[in-house]
Amino acid sequence: MFERITADPEKMGGVPCIRGLRIPVSIIIGLIADGMAHDEILKAYPDLELEDIKEALRFAAYVTKERNIPLKTIS
Predict the structure, then answer these.
(1) Are 20 and 11 in contact (CB under 8 A)?
(2) Which terminus, N or C, of the chain has the lesser number of Cβ atoms within 10 Å?
(3) What domain range includes position 11?
(4) Residue 56 is part of a domain; what is its CATH number?
């Protein structure tokens, strides 16, 4: 389903990373959330490809869709 997202218990404690690199998906999502543009991320992480960033976003969307995350309810 996700060809560019890997999880290896021997690398980064099994945290989902991009293509076996030591770049966690959470780092990419955090950079985007902080307002970093795709081209800035690619410049900061030369081993990444644009499709890696896109798949990281798709993965984050999938993970949050499939989980029941406790959130503060608004009254």
Answers:
(1) yes
(2) C
(3) 5-62
(4) 1.10.10.10
pTM of the model: 0.85
Q: What is the pLDDT of residues 12-30, one digit of tens each?
A: 999 999 999 999 999 999 9
Q: Tell me, what DSSP letter sits at residue 22?
A: S
> Maximum Cα–Cα distance for the chain, whole Å?
46
**How many CB atoms are located within 10 Å of the residue 4 CB?**
20
| Residue 6, φ and ψ in degrees, nearest 5 | -125, 155
Q: How confident is the model at residue 71 (pLDDT cuts 50, 70, 90)?
A: low
Number of domains making up the chain: 1
